[in-house]
Amino acid sequence: MTEVKAELVSVGTELLLGQIVNTNAAWISEQLAEKGVSVYYHSVVGDNFNRLAEVFLEAGKRSDIVFITGGLGPTEDDLTREAFQHISGLHIEEDQGTINKMEAFFAKINRTMTPNNRKQAHVFQDSKVLHNSVGIAPGIIVDYNKTLWVFMPGVPREMKAIMTEEVLPFLKETFVLKTVIRSRMLRFIGIGESQLEHNLRDLVSNQTNPTIAPLASEGEVALRLTAKAENNQEAEQLIDQIELKIKKEVGQYLYGYDNVTIEKTVFDLLKQKHLTIASAESLTGGAFASKVVEQGGASAIFNGAAVVYQPSSKVSALSVNDELIAAHGTVSKECAEAMASQVKKVYQSKLGISFTGVAGPEELEKQSAGTVYISICDHNNKHYTERFQFNGDRQTIRNRAVKKAFELLFYHLKK
Question: Which keywords accompany this UniProt record (predicted)?
Answer without folding.
Answer: Coiled coil
